[in-house]
Amino acid sequence: MSRSRSFSRAAGLLVAAAALAASVRCGGSSTPPTQPSPPVSPTPTPTPTPAALSCNPTPPPLYGIRVKIHEGEGSFRKTLDSRPLVVNVDNYCERAVGLSGAFCVVRREGEPDAADCDRMAVGKAGDTGRWGPTWYWDGKPCTAEGETTPGCRNHPSEQFLVIAKGPGKYAACASPDVPVAGDRCGELEVQ
User: Fold this and answer.
1) Could you report the per-residue pLDDT of 145-168, keeping only the tens digit for each?
2) E-assigned strands of the chain?
3) How big is the CA angle at 143 (ends 157 and 120), to the nearest 5 degrees?
4) Partners of 107 in the beta sheet?
């Protein structure tokens, strides 16, 4: 190391020591000030979904959605129903439903956890935010139009049902955030 470099380093150390001694004499602390750490915001606890609480075993990826006429109210107005179908992963169909095959319904109708398991398999509708599929008529979202206008209207209390008005192709589609191993939507052509 060169002599001038050694001298500069020694001078720097001497100045630092003198500054430290001055701060101690003036009532300061011998420890250097520290930056305050940013406040820690608590991580919110995720709210469990009703489906996650009462569906065991949980459904495997969606295979598709079965759509059928639930009840007809004349020739123009009908109520359509939808049921998710899942792939038979790890013998899910045998364990959860008692059926065999490549796919099955999530639970048998009437079982206490059937509605919650259906909700878990399909997710929430994009238009209403309710648990169940998003419904479409001829590729257009359901609306709240009048009774004589063709199209569809979301059921007032059950997202797995829709009020179909007139002929056309009706579709029930799962949320984009649920795992799918088949079709995200199920369709029914109504005459």
Assistant:
1) 667 788 999 999 999 999 999 999
2) 62-73, 77-87, 103-105, 134-137, 140-141, 151-154, 161-165, 168-173, 185-190
3) 45
4) none
pLDDT in tens, 100-110: 999 999 999 99
Coil, strand or helix: which one is 109? Answer: coil
How much is the pLDDT for 188? 97
| Other CB atoms within 10 A of residue 113 CB | 16
Q: Is 128 exposed, middle or buried (0-12, 13-18, 19+ CB in 10 A)?
A: middle
Give the position of tokens 């419904």.
135
- 166, amino acid identity: G
Tokens of 4: 């001038």
pLDDT digits (tens, 9 = 90+) for 9-42: 444 443 444 443 443 343 444 444 444 444 443 4
Query: Domain spans of the chain?
Result: 50-190
Q: What is the pTM of this model?
A: 0.70
